[in-house]
Structures are given as structure tokens and as C-alpha cells.
Amino acid sequence: MSDVKVFTLEDLQAHKSREDLYLLISGKVYDATQFLDEHPGGDEVLLEEAGRDGTEAFEDVGHSDEARDMLVKMFVGNFDGPTKSSAKASAGGSTTTSSSSGTNPLLFVVLAGVGAFLAWRLFLA
Questions:
Q1: Which of 36, 38, 51, 107 could covalently link to 16 via disulfide, CB atoms 3.0 to 4.6 Å apart?
Q2: Residue 88 and residue 91: Cα distance in Å, rounded?
Q3: Which Pfam families does the record cross-reference, listed alphabetically (predicted)?
Q4: CA distances from 14 to 11, 50, 51, 78 (A)
Q5: Segment 58-84, tens digit of pLDDT
Q6: Domain containing 12: what range?
């Protein structure tokens, strides 16, 4: 059995600065500190989700398989506590089934446009 570190909500919230940023995605904790400057959507997106459950935001954007593979290198441990998805389930949640797989194409287009605009402005600066 491996010695995987287990994080609590307090542990997670202690790592939400630009110099030390952990993200919770699907019950797993990732150290995204070194990825801040490389994130295509900008560092603000990651900083906004730091210290809390960012699963919904991660899934809504529709990340590529390559992005999901990058998470493996950033993994630091598992989360021990309620997540947004477990809170919805315990609160009764919706019993309807959506035909989408949690992605919102319009949101992706908007974020891609914002990213392109910021990159364009960066190159002109």
C-alpha cells in the first residue's frame, strides 16, 4: 500500500497563494504552483479555484486528454472531506440526466477567445 498524503479542507486552504497553490479536482489534490504561468486560460482562473473544490470549473471548460495527463505529474494526495459533487448528492441533487458530459462548448469558446485576446495583447506590449 502506498503512502499517499491525505488533505483536509484546512490543509487545502493553506495552499492558495501564487507561491503555493493546490487545487482539488475530483477528490484529488494537485500542486499547480509551477503551472500558473503556463496555464492557457491565465493564472487568475487557477487562483480563483485555489483552496476549494475546482472540479466543476475544470470539467466545464472541457480540458483535453493532454491537460488531464498533466495532472498526474502535479498529484500530491487525496482529499478527505466533502466535495461539491458529494454535497450535491447528499442534498438530494437533481435526478434528471443530462445528455452533455459536463462540458459547456460556449464557455470553452469564450475562454479561448479571452485567452487569445490576452495573448495578442501580451505580444503587442
A1: 51
A2: 5
A3: Cyt-b5
A4: 5, 9, 7, 15
A5: 888 788 788 888 889 999 999 987 666
A6: 5-124
Distances, alpha carbon 86 to alpha carbons 47, 55, 67, 117, in Å: 23, 11, 24, 36
> Which CATH number belongs to the domain containing residue 98 in this structure?
3.10.120.10
How many domains does one find in the chain?
1
Quickly tell me which residue has 473544490 as its cell.
53
Angle at Cα 86 formed by Cα 110 and Cα 111, nearest 5°?
Answer: 5
Question: Is this structure's pTM higher than 0.70?
Answer: no
CA-closest candidate to residue 23, choices 2, 43, 3? 43
